[in-house]
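USER: Please consider what follows.
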Amino acid sequence: MPGHPSDHPYAVLAVQRVLPVLREADADAAVLRTTALLAAGCRAVELTTSTPGWAGAVTRTAPLSDVHGRPALIGVGTVTTTAQAEAALDAGAAFLISPYPAPEVRAVAVRREAVFIEGGFTPGEIAAAVRAAGSAKVFPAHVGGPGFVRSLRAVLPGAVIIPTGGIRPAEVPGWLAAGATAVGLGDGLPSDPGELAAVFAAAAVPYGAPRAAGH
């Protein structure tokens, strides 16, 4: 786990504000996509356990750096079991994410002092995740829309809130304006390097600029 506060996944996500969620055909494809994302100005990337050979992809990408030379933060998503959580951390994952409440994963994260962004949909699930670790993934986010995140932010002002599911790149500004810390994007990210870099440049807090507390 990175030791400097600015290297903590929550801090990185609050600056990056777009979290790519990769579901690839195999580990090689995941490594290629991750490398392209890092070159485009991304630093934190979520690989998912739905990718065959995902643990190997994490091992290969965790030592990489972003375009500014900072260590990449490779997270693992769709983590729902103890075995997946242990394997992800053993492979070098910087954080874990689940799509719904996952007590088994939370227990591993506590024991290994790892960052876990637990998924939830109802206000109760989301609040429980925030109480446990200061963060929550809102999934499936498109069902409630940005207005749901705005309501959550009103009662969870300091939380790291990451809506994911059914969100397109063009919709990111609306979710950020509603109070999302970062927005998970599983589809729609362009393959062209210039266009991909533009997505991250448009969403991110400018490199080196201060950021607001709690966002």
